[in-house]
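[Target chain]
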Amino acid sequence: MIAYIKGKMVKIQEDSIVIDVNGIGYEIICANPFSFQSFMNKEAIVYTYHYVREDSQILYGFKNEDEKYLFIKLISVSGIGPKGALGILGSVDIPAFVSAIEQEDDKFLTTFPGVGKKTARQIILDLKGKLNLSFSIEIDQEQDSEEAKVDYQTINEVQEVLKSLGYSDKEIRLILPELKKEPNLNVDEAVRKALSLLMKG
């Protein structure tokens, strides 16, 4: 198992990054490759999960071990594969996600891409009680959880607005890290901020 890769970030693509290690380029599939933008042409450590099947071998990459651990747990859920797990990780707030599982809040879980009510219930069934200790999360902080839900839902709505305006997933993902630094914005304010960031880019 390849636990992590340390090398020079030489390429960022729509769905992956490339790390050069002693002249060998490792292509690593990520939920949000552009979150690694600050490491371009610099040395970086990317935590990895080596996914092996009869017909393929794929490296999935993460910025930290919490993201990697959540990915591993998600692909253990019946009905969720690597693509679905990456879809969740693309915009996940881990404390809010774990709190939703512990509180059996399937409505919140269905706000994630590709998660319907059946899958949300399966996530709760398979993962409840298995994540909160791993992430040292206080699940009784309902107010914090509610705030995190609002943040995620706002970001989700902003992405839909930007897509309707003709922006690509690649362009949108590039500005998400900066947009998430201002969690108290409403949808209209967040859209204006996003458009400003896109025009700067």
